Amino acid sequence: METIVQNIQGVPLNHYILFCSIIFTIGVMGVLIRRNVIIIMMSVELMLNSVNLLLTAFSVHHGDAAGQVFVFFIMALAAAEVAVGLAIIVMVYRNTRSVDINALNRLRG
Amino acid sequence: MSAIITLSLLAILVLYLGLFKARRALLPVSLLGLVATVVLYGVQWGKTAEPLYSGMVLFDHFAVVFSVVCVILTILVLLLSKDYFDKSSPHVAEYYALLLFSLTGAVLVVSFHNLAMLFIGIEIMSVALYILAGIRKKDFASNEAALKYFLMGAYSTGFLLFGIALLYGASGSFDLAAIKEYVVSNPQGISPLFYAGILLLIVSLAFKLGAAPFHFWTPDVYDGSPILITIFMATVVKTAAIAGFLRLFYFCFIPLQDFWVPVLLVMTIITLFVGNLTAIVQQSVKRMLAYSSISHAGYLLFAIVAIGATSANSVLFYVTAYSLSTIIGFGSLILVKRATGSEHFEAFNGLAKKNPYLSLAIAIAMLSLAGIPLTAGFVGKFMMFSGVLADYQVLLVVLAVINAAMGIFYYFRVIVAMYFKPLDRDAIVVSGPYRVVFFLAALITLLLGVYPAWLTGLI
Amino acid sequence: MSVFYFVAFLSIFFALMTIFTKNPVHSVLYLVITFFTFTVHYILLNAQFLAVVNFIVYMGAIMVLFLFVLMLLNLNKDTEPLKSNLVKFMGVIAGMCLLVTLAASFRLLQISDPVVLKNPDIGLVSNLGKVLFSDFLLPFEISSILLLTAMVGAVLLAKNDPKKV
Question: In this predicted structure, which of A71-75, B103-107, B419-423 has the lowest mean pLDDT?
């Protein structure tokens, strides 16, 4: 364990923030450029994960456990959201036989 | 706290009632439970509020008043739900339970004192609504509404969480008091993380509130969902979202006003114009009301632009006036759609001859939404505008008055259709609960328009 | 120290693969690898419990759910008609704008102190449990409502209604 702990000494906090922002941005881009609903949901998962890592990094930096506890709540949310989201997708698929968001553009105006 | 426990237990009780096929008991039990919640809040009134459970929630006057507003609006919505759900599906108990869960989330959003509670409250509120938007499983529009609402909601949750993470990184705590302490004690050395966090929070809360440029989901979702759920979204959820927004910014971010007020100012102006200009060209009343709800989100943001001690009062007043009128508007749409099968303006033609009282209620609601004097909507708009004027943002008020004029145009189309376009038609049957709801809402709208002091002194 | 940069590079690479691969099943698999690299990050930060939970919940439960639905709906072919290049371009531009804005605001950050484990026990189960069940007890209880809502809703939506006679 000592070596692992040694490993982390020296990475600046900024690099953690930058890294999490990059992953978050990749998630945002994924939502914007894909049409498959399931992949959009996966991109949202990426966004949530980047937040988790960022919270953990801050929590270690501040020496405060609250950040890591918050990660639990995000995980609970992610599980709930995925369950509901996939149920919605299954329901939509039954009616339209498609998971393409552009197939769902009847409402316009 | 007892109110939140009552609400969640009530929802579970309703689920059990569904299990034992006690369908007739559903509505009375839910209503009784909600009334009990209001009473419990009333008992709490006036006691000095302390943050409870290591600073997780704080039931100050702000929280109590907005919670009571949310609960009362839900009571009205539930009254309208009598024999609305029964036709569509056998799972009525689940719908009531989900509405009550969503209400629990809304109550948490208005009484949070820790960002963890804000986050969980928003999520409970939204997750229940993703499902409710899609309860017409065979209906294409309802499916689309559920999917869009879900995707947009999940996306905005990502922004909310990133914002919260950045605030935590800068201040080292999720507690509102600690964050405020951080802002006040380092006037110079506020970390850039904190600013980025505020921006991301604005983005995500604007998503939830339906303010431009993050409004694009609103019309489709409001249009596609079953009307009753739309009423809930447009009233309770909007109330909770703006109250949570105001609470967060009023508690923590006032010293940084110079940074975020310009951002919100631009958003407010865009919201007003987008909402009103698109509402004018709509042919369907449902979509018109959906777009007009965007513009009302713009008016609500005024209170945050001119943030101060009176903001809470003006938001309370505006949101009450807006919600009551919205309930009448969408509620009458349920009846009209049932009778004619159409949601267009033409469906209202000649309504005044056959249903004079219903038309009167709709007219009052439209006048209030448009902000005509002697209705609550006028007083609400007046309070918003005077708050901004006190801050010398004259330009904003001028733009808002132009928008209010545009609003009058499309709200009056409904009134004109009802009173001045004769058409032979059958009278619409208005059942008992609908009469009660419309009567109460119209009465309160008028009373508040004449005696605004009843509501303004509360917070 | 270099371990961090290596793993971070892998995370970014696989995250990009996730959103740019055409075949949805490959996307899920790349996402699993991304999550695995995140688990490594948690271990590097000495957040051992989170590492385990991340491994079980994300890589186990959530990903299996995704794969399950993909297979259930028989979507494992890359039939997705891609968005027009314009939309893609706009998406990437918007994303880059966000990134530049975020990065620029962090550039101003003076504190560039290395992340130091002030308290090495922080990520251990006993410590987290104490905080969770004292300070964060209320959110913990309330999140049960969230899970119940999701459960009721998922069953309600995904259930096939019996045909009315």
Answer: B419-423
Q: Does B94 touch chain A (CB under 8 A)?
A: no
- Tokens 């499916």: give the residue: B143
In a mutational test of the B interface, the residue from C97, C122, C155, C156 whose CB has the highest number of chain B CBs within 10 Å is C156
Tokens standing for residue C18? 């996730």
Domain-wise residue ranges, chain B = 2-456
Q: Determine the distance in angstroms separating the CA of C6 from the nearest CA of chain B, rounded to an integer.
A: 24
Between helix B192-209 and helix B285-305 the angle, nearest 10°, is: 150
Say what the pLDDT of residue A7 is.
Answer: 53
What pTM was computed for the model?
A: 0.91
CATH annotation of A8-97: 1.10.287.3510
Neighbors of chain A with 3 or more C-beta pairs under 8 Å: B, C
Q: Is C47 in contact with A68 (Cβ distance < 8 A)?
A: yes
pLDDT digit string, tens, across residues C83-106: 567 777 777 777 777 777 777 666
pLDDT in tens, B245-265: 999 998 888 888 888 888 888
Helix runs in chain A, H state only: 2-8, 13-33, 37-62, 66-96
Q: Is the ipTM of this complex over 0.85?
A: yes
* Distance (Å, whole) CA C126 – CA C130: 6
Query: Token digits for A100?
Result: 């393409």
| Domain ranges within chain A, ordered by starting residue | 8-97
Shortest Cα distance, chain C CAs vs residue A7, angstroms: 5
Q: Does domain C2-123 have CATH number 1.20.120.1200?
A: yes
Which residue(s) pair with B52 in the sheet?
A: B57
- List chain C domain ranges: 2-123, 124-160
